[in-house]
Design brief:
Elements: H1 5-23, E1 29-30, E2 34-36, E3 48-50, H2 57-61, E4 71-74, E5 85-95, E6 107-109, H3 113-123, E7 141-147, E8 150-160, E9 163-171, H4 176-190, E10 196-200, H5 204-208, E11 212-221
Parallel strand pairs: 3-4, 9-10
Antiparallel strand pairs: 1-2, 2-3, 4-11, 5-10, 5-11, 6-7, 7-8, 8-9
């Protein structure tokens, strides 16, 4: 039983950030208050994630390369970071474990490097960024759905602390509603009984699929 969904969401997301960094050869460090990376993290990923509302600027800025380009995920939206500005704000979201249900289109788990590159091309509008590396497939469930053989939507599932983390939900050849519905169906099949957590800057579609907002977050950037 998950007694603190917000803490579970924060921890799962920090674990996903660490997994991404490990896949690129530069694991971060966990303390009681923050996850941090001494090396600059891959594009779109923060150099630090706070793990406690008690975290301070000193808990993160002294443990990262805090120069231009540095970013910090302020998981409880409480920090003040001198020299940084808010890049975006978002909401942590949570919903009870979904029931098994059919999906409108066929979904699959990405299982090899070639399919992962195809997934990345669909997720990033035709580009291959070399962000999602095959090492990720060992510890996360990267999902996709196809129409006429082409990947049209996808997402990522992670598992930690009794929850399933949902991230990177995208739709490139269908609508987001279809992407979220299929992701929930796959979560029920692959990680049954686990409540779902994540965050969205625009949670409207997620909320229509049974999620509720459980707390704000901010991402800070040193430009």
């Amino acid at each position: 039983m998950v007694t603190d969904p917000l803490a579970a969401a924060v921890r799962d997301n920090a674990g996903w950030c660490d997994l991404m960094c490990r896949a690129h050869g530069s694991p971060g460090t966990f303390t009681g208050r923050a996850w941090t990376s001494r090396a600059r993290t891959p594009i779109f990923y923060p150099d630090a994630v706070t793990l406690s509302p008690d975290a301070t600027a000193a808990d993160v800025l002294g443990r990262i390369d805090a120069g231009p380009g540095a970013s910090v995920k302020d998981s409880y939206a409480v920090l003040e970071l001198p020299g940084f500005e808010v890049l975006f704000e978002a909401q942590w979201i949570h919903r009870p474990a979904p029931e098994r249900a059919g999906a409108a289109i066929a979904w699959e788990v990405v299982g090899d490097a070639d399919t992962l590159r195809e997934w990345e091309r669909a997720a990033f509008t035709g580009e291959v960024t070399d962000l999602f590396l095959p090492a990720l497939l060992k510890e996360a469930q990267i999902l996709c759905a196809r129409i006429d053989g082409d990947i049209v939507c996808g997402s990522v599932l992670t598992a930690s602390g009794g929850v399933a983390g949902v991230s990177n939900v995208f739709a490139s050849g269908c609508d987001l509603d279809t992407a979220w519905a299929g992701t929930l169906a796959m979560a029920a099949e692959l990680l049954p009984g686990r409540p779902l957590v994540g965050y969205e800057s625009d949670p409207e579609v997620a909320l229509s699929h049974g999620f509720t907002p459980i707390g704000p977050l901010r991402v800070w950037l040193n430009r």
